[in-house]
Fold:
Amino acid sequence: MGVSGSGKTTIGELLAQHLHLPFFDGDDYHPAANVAKMAAGHPLTDADRHDWLATLAQHLGAWEQDQGAVLACSALKETYRQTLQGGAKEHLRWVFLDGSYELLHSRLEGRHDHYMKADMLDSQLATLEKPTYGLRLELAKDETPEQVVARIVERLPASAK
Structure:
């Protein structure tokens, strides 16, 4: 989890490969109206996110019953995380990718093929309620995605590996 530019998709894909689990990107489950709203530079509201989060929670429950999965999702507020947690009753592990404003902004500035643009970062950071649980990783500018994944794997509970 984390704001745009934190590397959720890149890190999630690599982590899923390492754990031999399927990977899913929460962005792929947004309804078209949400994508259009964000692409137009407008932040989503809690109401916009409600059905999206409920859908992801349902999927988490199904994935948990299967082999498990890695999901990249912003999960910016505690209420959003509680909705997601409600879908996966027992085995959900939180990894919060946290970075400086400068790092996140520079990453978003370098993105040209995504609907989330750099000018949306401020609204995401204003919405973000940093979790006090799970694994929090402070991102470093010179750290590779593989190094981030290695840090996650090193610190994951043994039952999650």
Remarks:
- The beta strands are 23-25, 70-72, 95-98, 135-138.
- Residues 15 and 150 are 9 Å apart (CA to CA).
